[in-house]
Every structure is written in structure tokens, then in C-alpha cells.
Write a structure and sequence with these properties.
- This protein is of the alpha/beta class and 196 residues long.
- The protein has 6 helices and 7 strands; from the N terminus they run E-H-E-H-E-E-H-E-E-H-E-H-H.
- Strand 3 and strand 4 form a beta hairpin.
- The longest helix has 19 residues.
- The two termini are 15 Å apart.
Length: 196
């Protein structure tokens, strides 16, 4: 079976390796524009776009395949944060997260074809994250590391950004970008895949 991760994220690659020993990486192209007002719906829609784009691009009509698309966003006080546009945008996001509670949403779409039957499942996972207060010096110094610039909400919990996280409720891997445990259950129950 051909297994494809429709994402260029090095973090998702590492996380997916805890489920599959071998898989291909074919990133979906295009702008990740959030068109939905609800964060869970927004990330699900974007993950669906990524997975279906790769399925159409590769014209996968024959054989068995599994395509996994994922998208992550941060929601705080009714605002949805994707990746920052620039350093000023990153600073604005971090100021809003400072000393506050937010949620990280990751939407995942799995499209599979096995025994001639195509199936598609989309879901979203949410994790609550509490930030310690950050002063302006910390925010600017963190931005200068470059870490915030390719991450939803402008921080990486698994990197330097982890020093600002007071606590989380939910799946840690979800904050990094892929809810591995939930994905494993979906693959096992919906796609009847044997992982071992």
C-alpha cells in the first residue's frame, strides 16, 4: 500500500513515523487560507483540501493507497491564528497568547483505497494550552530565534516555545501538529489497518 503524508512539516514527519515505518512525503501546494469561522471546521476543511489535492494530483485510481492531510491552527478569544505573515504578526500573536488560555486544533483527513473501495474520514482534535505571561523582551528575543515563523500561533511547544507553556490539557502531539493517538485509532477502526 502506498502511504503518503500531504505535508511538508518536519514535525508531522517525525510524529507519523511512530505509526508507519515507511511513507512518502508529497506536500500539498497553495495558500492555507482559513475560510471557516469555527477553528475545528477550518482545520478540517484545510486538511481535506490537502489530502484531496494530492489524490487528484497523483491520479490515484488504481492500487491501494492512504493519504494523510493535516492542518493546525491556534484559537484565542475568538481569533484563529495560523502561521505568522512576518515578525510583527508573530509578536502580535504572542502578546495575545501571553498569560492566557488558548486551544490548538489540528484537523486530519485520511483518504484510503483498499480492495477497490475508497473511503474518507476527517476529524479535528483540540488541546487546551495555558501560557505564562511573557514580557516584550522575551517576545522579541523568541522571534529572533526564528522558531515562531513557520508555526501556527507563532510558537513551537517542542522547542524554545515550550518554556512559556504553564500546562496543557489534551494531546501534546496535537499541539506539535499531528494527534498521533487519535489518528492511530481512526486508521485501526475506520481503515482496518494492521500496524504491527
Amino acid at each position: 500500500m502506498r502511504i503518503i503524508l500531504a505535508s511538508a512539516s518536519p514535525r508531522r514527519k517525525v510524529l507519523l513515523a511512530s505509526i508507519f515505518n515507511e511513507f512518502e512525503i508529497i506536500p500539498a501546494q497553495g495558500e492555507e487560507a482559513i475560510a471557516q469561522a469555527q477553528p475545528d471546521a477550518a482545520v478540517q476543511a484545510l486538511s481535506f483540501e490537502k489530502a484531496t489535492q494530492i489524490e487528484q494530483q497523483l491520479q490515484l485510481s488504481n492500487g491501494e493507497y492512504l493519504i494523510i492531510g493535516a492542518d493546525t491552527a491556534v484559537a484565542c478569544h475568538g481569533q484563529i491564528f495560523g502561521k505568522p505573515q512576518d515578525e510583527a504578526d508573530a509578536a502580535a500573536m504572542l502578546r495575545k497568547l501571553s498569560g492566557n488560555v488558548h486551544k490548538v486544533y489540528t484537523g486530519v483527513t485520511v483518504i484510503g483505497k483498499k480492495d477497490g473501495l475508497r473511503s474518507c474520514t476527517t476529524f479535528a482534535e483540540a488541546t487546551k494550552v495555558v501560557f505564562y505571561p511573557m514580557d516584550e523582551l522575551e517576545i522579541q528575543a523568541y522571534i529572533q530565534t526564528g522558531e515562531p515563523m513557520d508555526k501556527a500561533g507563532s510558537y513551537g511547544i517542542q522547542g524554545i516555545g515550550g518554556r512559556f507553556v504553564e500546562k496543557i490539557e489534551g494531546d501534546y502531539n496535537n499541539v506539535i501538529g499531528l494527534p498521533v493517538a487519535k489518528l492511530y485509532q481512526v486508521l485501526k477502526n475506520n481503515f482496518h489497518l494492521q500496524m504491527f
